[in-house]
Amino acid sequence: MTDAPGPLEPLGQPILDRLTFERLTTAHRRELKLHCYRMMGSLHEADDLVQETFLRAWRGRSQFDGRGSPRGWLYTIATNSCLNAIKARSSVHRILEQPGRPPTEGRAAGGPAAELAWLEPYPDAELPDLVDGEPGPDARYETREAVQLAFVAAIQLLPPRQRAALLLCDVLGWSALETAHLLGGTTASINSALQRARATLAMRYPQGRPLQRERPNREESLLLERYMQAWQAANLDRFIELLREDATYHMPPWLDWYQGREAIRAFFKTVWGNFAGYHAVATRANGQPAFAVYARRHQEPEWRAQSLHVIEPADGRIASLTVYVGPLGTELFAAFGLPAVWPEPNK
Which residue numbers delimit the SnoaL-like domain (predicted)? Predict the structure, then answer.
């Protein structure tokens, strides 16, 4: 089996020794973790499944005969581990919004829904190097598209086998034949699964693909600087001005979500004064700009983790905003290398 794009040379015989295996796992850890994240929608599950993949690979290293690429061998183990994990858990997919729930108007009433499985953001620090340029001959999505939060949310709607087929073929560039060897079945069955998966995604992307993200430029940098300043000045009007008229706002793990600048303003007017002040720290998630926001409660001196903001800029404004709030949001700070309490909010 080959595994476009970029297969490695076969290692050959004898069986992988420990040093060679360690080099192999180090070289592919990040891309395998990203693959598991796309399959599962969970950063924490991805961590566990990469460890399981390497454990299974080490124990089964005698089964690798050197005729295929070691990268393809590891992807086979990782994908099957993900499919088994999905089969074993109560929810087959994670969400950014409750299916079929209309946008809220005014005060949030849905409350945090801990019983639902929520899609988690992915720190850019954990991403493999993003590849620029055209995708491989069999891939349909560029790397930068396939890490976006909205794209990962969309593929979570697919049944597990369709999700795996789409990731292997349309994101990684495997052929239908190679994917059939991994998932089982025939090339025709893989092509059928791909057709159904692509039809589902087409309903989410009428133009055929996710919003095209340009390279960060001065206009985007200024937008993000204004966003940070608006929060740190606790200026609601300046914050709302940065949104597109048709912007969307989600706040996992709350069920409520909002559509349109005025609806978002009406919601924030009900909560903006809950804290005495905010401190924003720039980061990145899913190849997108992000901020970790710390807040200080009235009559309290400490600036504590409050929310994680993932931003989708478009045409000089913010097209969508996903703000992970407590308790889920604060739990994510550690994964982004951020403390629970900010020691120096003015620096």
Answer: 225-320
**What is the per-residue burial (b if ≥16 Cβ within 10 Å, else e) of 173-187?**
bbbbebbbbbbeeee
Q: Where are the alpha helices (DSSP H) in the chain?
A: 18-40, 43-59, 70-88, 149-155, 160-166, 176-183, 187-204, 218-232, 236-241, 261-271, 328-331
Q: Are 106 and 266 in contact (CB under 8 A)?
A: yes
- Give the separation between CA 254 and CA 73, rounded to whole angstroms: 40
Tokens of 85: 């994990």
CA–CA separation, 306 and 285 (whole Å): 17
For the ranges 80-94, 99-113, 130-144, the lowest mean pLDDT is seen at: 130-144
What is d(CA 2, CA 70) in angstroms, rounded to the nearest whole number? 10
Contact 74, 28 (CB under 8 A): yes
Residue 168 carries which DSSP code?
I
pLDDT higher than 50, residue 180:
yes
**Beta-strand pair 277-285/257-259:** unpaired
User: Concatenated DSSP letters for 109-134?
Assistant: -S-B-TTSPBPPP-BGGGSPPPPPSP
Residue 321, strand partner residues: 249, 311
Spatial neighbors of 203 by CB under 8 A, at least 6 apart, are none
DSSP result, 139-166: --S-TTGGGSHHHHHHHTTS-HHHHHHH
Give me the CATH topology for the region 18-89+120-204.
Butyryl-CoA Dehydrogenase, subunit A; domain 3 (1.20.140)
For residue 228, which phi and psi values (nearest 5 degrees)? -60, -45
pLDDT at position 133 is 41
**Band of pLDDT at residue 132, cut at 50, 70 and 90:** very low
The CATH classification of domain 218-342, taken from the options 3.10.450.50, 1.10.155.10, 3.40.50.300, 3.90.1170.50: 3.10.450.50
Q: What is the value of pTM for the model shown?
A: 0.90
Mean pLDDT throughout 189-207? 89
